[in-house]
Amino acid sequence: MKNYVVTVARGFGTGGKAIASKLAADLGIHCYENRILTLASQLSGLDEKLFKEVNEKLRTSGNSFASLMKGLPRARKYIARNEKFVSDDTLFEYQKKIILNLAETESCVIVGKCADYILQGRENVVSVYIEAPRDFCIKRTIENMGVTEEVAQATIRQTDKFRADYYQYYTHGNYWTNPINYDMTLNSEKVGIDNCVTVIKDYLKIKGLI
What we know:
This protein is of the alpha/beta class. It has a single domain, classed as P-loop containing nucleotide triphosphate hydrolases (Rossmann fold, 3-Layer(aba) Sandwich), CATH 3.40.50. It contains 9 helices and 5 strands; from the N terminus they run E-H-E-H-H-H-E-H-E-H-H-E-H-H. Strands 2-3-1-4-5 form a 5-stranded parallel sheet, with helices on both faces. The radius of gyration is 18 Å and the shape is globular.
């Protein structure tokens, strides 16, 4: 059977990562989130720290190329000699290459990284957005991170803004929560973490992918 990909976009604290991990485990396939940063680092020969600095966020409001010099490690051993600077756009392109390669070579679940946009229009791709009420996200964040409610609220607000700005920039004006971007949007509080996994698997069966 042809390989398939499930992309998972998620609000912070919604349990989207847990859903993606459980889905991949149930299907017997890999789940890629931050591992994409490692693979992009290996592909490019650039320090993985650079990719982590721009992990679903923009380092500057204008995302200008030259301003990224401050993000480079002092030791330039990871940088090709003829590469004078590395832009956020260049780092994104390496991640994009990894995502496209994964979609061509294996069945997998990919979390975030604008994967739904990068892989849009492919018949073997199912894109899911996971959201939940703020109170639910705050409670999960407090439990998972061991922080106060105030810190949880700030973390959710800031992280979701990073992800929204990142998505808008690299999709050329689209917005992250637009339901048109996805095959389905699931409320993880109302549906439940395990049931979200079941619903996605059922949809994959309907699409004839599993």
